[in-house]
Amino acid sequence: MDTAIDIRPAIAADAGIISRILQRSIRVGCSRDHRNEPARLEAWIRTRSIGHVLPWLADPRLYLNLAHWQGKPAGVGMARDDGRILLCYVQPEWFRRGIARALVAGLERWLTAAGHGTVRLNSTLTAEGFYRHLGYRQTAQSFRVAGFIAIPMHKPLV
């Protein structure tokens, strides 16, 4: 892992920056999914407000990690104790620097420590190639959720 990337568990005081990372990454990096349609975009980012992030940080079933690139907040990942990765987003100016890979590796370590031998996730169209590159494989037909395509994927951890 690049030494310029620092990954640590997120805390409640990080809620504002996590919300901003999520919203900016979705706006800029996920246009393949929201197709720059204002209603679709707003519906997606509305569920990434500080008011939504704070309960995630307080939920003992969830693990959020925060990445810093050269000391600046750069990305966020979240997993659930049932063996699923729920999200991984990076600030647009830090795309393609290994940050998402480092976030996912941290989530996978957390899931391995929790006793999971396989990790599951539902990828967006935007992230599918990234997850395939990390060894994830599609496990079932894609489906629609909230108007977006979700691609069920998994990866053995051991």
TrEMBL record:
<keyword id="KW-0012">Acyltransferase</keyword>
<keyword id="KW-0808">Transferase</keyword>
<dbReference type="Pfam" id="PF13673">
    <property type="entry name" value="Acetyltransf_10"/>
</dbReference>
<dbReference type="GO" id="GO:0016747">
    <property type="term" value="F:acyltransferase activity, transferring groups other than amino-acyl groups"/>
</dbReference>
<protein>
    <submittedName>
        <fullName>GNAT family N-acetyltransferase</fullName>
    </submittedName>
</protein>
<dbReference type="InterPro" id="IPR050832">
    <property type="entry name" value="Bact_Acetyltransf"/>
</dbReference>
<feature type="domain" description="N-acetyltransferase">
    <location>
        <begin position="5"/>
        <end position="158"/>
    </location>
</feature>
<dbReference type="InterPro" id="IPR000182">
    <property type="entry name" value="GNAT_dom"/>
</dbReference>
<dbReference type="InterPro" id="IPR016181">
    <property type="entry name" value="Acyl_CoA_acyltransferase"/>
</dbReference>
